[in-house]
User: Fold this.
Amino acid sequence: NAGVTQTPKFQVLKTGQSMTLQCAQDMNHEYMSWYRQDPGMGLRLIHYSVGAGITDQGEVPNGYNVSRSTTEDFPLRLLSAAPSQTSVYFCASSYRGAHGYTFGSGTRLTVV
Amino acid sequence: GENVEQHPSTLSVQEGDSAVIKCTYSDSASNYFPWYKQELGKGPQLIIDIRSNVGEKKDQRIAVTLNKTAKHFSLHITETQPEDSAVYFCAALRDTGGGNKLTFGTGTQLKVEL
Assistant:
């Protein structure tokens, strides 16, 4: 049982490049979310999903796309990276309902 | 939407003392309040949580209290140890039955000094 696995751990992009942050969980959780963490701002919700085929926007969705084709995977896509997207990104998953989320170890992204 | 405020932003205590972190939330429909501990270079880890139908919950040296009327909740750590040093986040969640969103406070950097 690996929990929530995020790859890569570190990434440097040039402005305008695209990339996909991978997230996978093996706990059969229905809910999955992506957060970004910036100094002094806590964790802010980017996109979330309540099940395969269902996604919705969070607090800061601009510049990011997601899809949920399987229960296990929830990739986050940056279509055209900008320096403002420099951050640490966390993926998290949870059972349906009011339950605690399990977080991955994060991806540190730098856009130059 | 939900707004969670957390205080203080930094907290320094002597080993063995108690530490208290306070949060307030804005959405009266929020019904689940977890606390997370984040160590350097790691993801947040759930340490304790409380649901809206409970006023207090304890787990060894950690306790959480909830005042629904005032819309605030607090984390209490007793007999602090150096390994308690980390960033702590409170959060509030509203379970709508068709999805939920977890809103975080801005974090408290706790330092336990020897």
Notes: The first strand of chain A starts at residue 4 and ends at 7. DSSP finds no helices and eleven strands in chain A.
